[in-house]
Amino acid sequence: MAFGMKKRDAPYDLFEIDLAGAEDLSEVSSQMSLGLSAGEMEKVREHFSREGRSPTDVELQALGQAWSEHCCYKSSKPILKEFVFGIPGDGVLSRGDAGVMAFDDEHGYALRIESHNHPSAVEPYGGAATGIGGILRDVVCMGAQPIGLVDPLCFGPPDRKAPLPPGTKHPRYLMGGVVSGIRDYGNRCGIPTIAGGFFFDERYTGNCLVNVGCVGIVRRENLANNFAGGPGEVMILIGGRTGRDGIHGVNFASRDLGEASGEESRGAVQLGDPITKEPVIHACLEVNRRGLATGMKDLGGGGLSCVVGEMALAAGCGADVDVDKVPLKESGLAPWEIWVSESQERMMCTCKPGDVEAALEVFEMWDVEATPIARTTEGSRMRLFWGGDLIFDMDLEFLTGGPVYDRPYSLPAPPDASSERFPDLPWHGEVLLSLLSDPNVASKEWAIRQYDHEVRAATVVHPMVGRMNETGPGDAAVLAPVPGSRRGLAVAVGCNPWFTSLDPYRGGMASVDEACRNIAAVGARPDALTDCLNFGNPERPERLGEMREAVRGIGDAARALGVPIPSGNVSLYNEAAGGRAILPTPMIMACGIIDDYRKAVTADLKREGSALFLIGRTRREMGGSLLFRTFGGSGGAVPETDAPYLKGVMARMAGAMGRGLVLSCHDCSDGGLAVAAAEMCISGGIGASLDLSGMGDPAVALYSESCSRWVAEVAEGDAEAFAEIMGGDAARIGSTGGDSLSLCGDSVPVKALRKAWSEPIWKIMGGSA
Amino acid sequence: MTGAEPRVCVLRMEGTNCEDEMAAAFREVGAAAELVHVKQLSAAAPAHLRRDLEDYDILALPGGFSAGDYVRAGALFAARIKSSAGAALRRFVEAEKPVLGVCNGFQTLVELGLLPAMGDAMPPAPEAALCTNDSGRFECRPTVLRMDNRGSCAFTSGIPRGALLAIPSAHAEGKFASADPDIVERLEDGDQIAFRYVAPGGGPARYPWNPNGSASDIAGICNPAGNVLGMMPHPERAISRFTHADWTRGYSSEDGDGKALFASAMRAVRPRS
User: Fold this and answer.
1) How many other β-carbons are positioned within 10 Å of the β-carbon of residue B166?
2) How many angstroms away from the CA of A189 is the closest CA of chain B?
3) Which tens digit of pLDDT belongs to each residue from A487-496?
4) CATH code at B52?
5) CATH number at residue A15
6) ipTM
7) Do B142 and A449 touch (CB under 8 A)?
8) Structural domain of residue B130, as residue ranges?
9) Structural domain span for residue A656
10) A70 in catalytic set
11) In chain B, which residue ranges form alpha helices assigned H by DSSP?
12) Is-contact A239 A363, C-beta < 8 A?
């Protein structure tokens, strides 16, 4: 060891690190798994030299957590600040651990999405389960009751045959484990999984993405702070015990995956326990509702080391902590391990001293372990004690004032229309069947029905829509969050990583467009977004450039739509061994409001003899399209979002749907108009015939993935009124009826469409519908 | 609230997770429903939180994953209830007060011996079981039930025999089975079958309409006295038409198909004057 460590003469494991005398600071960082760069270590050395002493291992470990990319956003913060922070919105009630928006005069709804990518790549079941646990806590610590979970997932091709790179697990195995983890955790906690998505591409093979979102509902007077009320309060640690699981999780999340990640990093994956979590949710919400807590926060990345400091600092306080009082799963943990462990199912609340007893009684009733472990203090020092001995004494400003980098970036060169090489296509029937059976489009019923999507009895529009047990894909789920009220909350995701890969700016915008499109398709108006920004290694300029451009696109779209982004999450270093980066994946979760959910619209065709309209403008925008990916086209313009146009169209759609003029509606996304129309036939069990003669090149009309488009079914008698409301934004493209879908001279039976769409994922994962 | 409403005890413990909507369902039909932790029935609770089963008119065991269901579903919940209030529960059942168990609550009633209870009202060992679905998976999907009770069951008195109800299912262990080869016949004879899975038009329930492979398509059974009903599908999720899976395809009433069960139970405790 190239540096000096001195064990303190005490009955616990505490070392003082001789930083002043260390020859190679990087060596200290790597030996202790701090994840800090040489430059960052130098800052730490200077700090302790000013303090006139050597740091303890607990102090260095705390810095390693606080200054990780995961905790302090050191690479992404300048970009987020420039483009997406602070987009104004009248309805924003809080930008805390979860965003909270006004729902009605008495309630707010909470929303947040985050990633659990690296743990899931190593241990898919546990990684996904604890991802659910973490996002639930983020909503609970706003004082909100979680009411819906949302899980967009990205994997390599699940039927991948080629040999896997070393250290990589098969996508099918990862997918099975992740879905089981979400199922077992979400179902056990009793929170419905209402929306999500699956994205399959070879570039996710080495680094799958598991994004987890949650929405909740809170009475406005119960909206909680995520920090203490002031000095002299008691911090109560709630829920699970602390163990060696989840040590250095944030550092693991802040570097690329390597060949040996599976073996080396399994200890960084936490163990979830939904049956500890479920009463923790009840008890925390009760303590908050009864006004016994001044603040609540969950223990996620960085564990105690992050939560204690953040809760105190945001209240302008310091804190004194008795680390030896933390309840442990096993004896023998060193103080630093306790301090940074990311063991699951833990929350912290701050209470005024006079309320502690009443709060503890609530936890006791629920058999939830709750232990006062710290006090907030005047000043800004955080001090840790073990049996009364001082083992940590740091200024919170320094500890939490991590570095921020303006890292170099290079901007991509997006393809334009002139680069387009259109593939040779078979007849349209064959093209359509092939697109429908692509895993990205094909039915996800295998997963969706394993998730309880209607526990809590408030799911108004389900994730699959249409005839019972012969359903098709929905656009957005709609919940009824407030008993007795007809006001609905619509929730959907949107992302197009292929667009983003070719043209990050347009891809970012298109992802917002898609999420909002889904909300508008059910009759709601978009109200707020939350984003999970999954990108590669920010220390590579081209990766950071992708992120910067995508975030710029998200910000421009959201600002033009007037929709705020009150919460979000960044996940960088999504690269497999050897620097193979993922597709840049700006996952957007959108929430919308529908005044009367009885007016909600679903995507299944309702009857024969209706008029079909295409809403929106179709352009020759084939870049990144499913058609090109499937049939070998290349280049081409990536679809562009005209956000002011989108805003206007969505408002007119909401008007038409509010008047009950729309029988069914579905957005055009992967596979364009052709796939959208086919899916409406599949879920409705009704055919349709499309006449696209006014739209130019039929292949472009059918398969272009131009943004801001929907197919709508309107009763023949209402067609005129509908067209009038929509102005020039909707064009008649056909009628419903029969048992086939006819398009541009070709015809395919609805039964064949259903078979092509229904079977692929079942065949890969096993079982049948 | 006048104080005269029937009082419903909705029992909960860690992992039960359908108690809010179960209580809401009873409130919807005019009952005063209270969420009671199983601990509150025992001396383990502080005095001001203690509750006595005797003070309630109806007992409901909600769905969920009580204690995680890491052993046989419902086994731990049943054990906790027995140790907290076993004698009080027997008195409650023998007084013929209505008891409803849905999903995990049904599994718990079977573990308690309260169903099918063809001999003693609360035999010491379970006489049947709810086994893993034939598909081997948790399944959340719409199911259609036919009301098959001939008049004994307290929860179906307001539902015409043969009526079809769309009430959704969500479980991994719902296949009703017993070591007794004649169980279906004996249940029929005792008028203990309340609901069967059927296809939407009332035809035979091939998978997925029978989502678990249950014998004779059994979805719900009652005890011989008819006051204890257990069922796998969730009537409390079908109180409003607008939580049904396919309401956007047309509907005639804003009430959901599950509401009639709760209304029937109210008639059982509050006979119309």
Assistant:
1) 20
2) 7
3) 999 999 999 9
4) 3.40.50.880
5) 1.10.8.750
6) 0.96
7) no
8) 7-269
9) 601-769
10) yes
11) 19-28, 75-94, 104-112, 183-189, 259-269
12) no
